[in-house]
């Protein structure tokens, strides 16, 4: 393989439809994400971002079409994926009666990591995320940003191939969000992970993703934008306008 060869596909949607009772959430959605890519998925509320996310996670099957992750069906082989994918949600979803350390350990327990590794890995990841010394704090004793740091530590500690974020930085103040996004990108890159970040924030998508997929209601791919590394503000402003046009449910196809 040459350096310019396309990434090996890790996530592939082919003509995916998802129909909920009374709602057609995704219509004919096809896209691919390659190994080691960091891709953002943007779109207005209700365009099907979380549905896409849940399909990747295998929480439910598509109504039609095919979803493949690492060549496997994530719904049919849910257990196979436990160690391979990790998730960071908008709210940190920590167990309130467990400390930061215990929350990170619990993630590894569910992923089937050997017990003797839990403590060391949890401490290491909490420290990498700037929480050394706060291992024994309970979620209510931490700020929103720190809780999300625990949630990131929990995800990375599993050492997954794929890391998925659904609006993970959206509820944070902009300063905290910026810092965490930057750290997130560094950790994804350093670990050679594949990252998928679902967000309604264009700034977030432009900061995070080298490639942006734009979904438009009713659930299809409206555009796909590459963000060249180190783009200057003018280029980013142009890309932003293009994303807004593509996202707009009223816009021309
Ligand atoms: N379990 C469900 N039952 C019925 N409708 C749903 C369900 N989940 C999502 N939807 C609908 O599907 C559409 C897409 O939802 P979602 O994927 O959550 O959008 P987004 O995350 O982009 O805001 C929305 O109109 C939503 O109301
Ligand atoms: Mg959503």
From TrEMBL:
Gene3D superfamilies: P-loop containing nucleotide triphosphate hydrolases
Organism whose genome encodes this protein: Actinomadura darangshiensis
Molecular functions (GO terms): ATP binding; ATP hydrolysis activity
Domain ABC transporter stretches: 11-242
The name this protein goes by in its record: ABC transporter ATP-binding protein
Database matches in SUPFAM superfamilies: P-loop containing nucleoside triphosphate hydrolases (SSF52540)
One matching Pfam family: ABC_tran
Keywords annotated in UniProt: ATP-binding, Nucleotide-binding, Transport
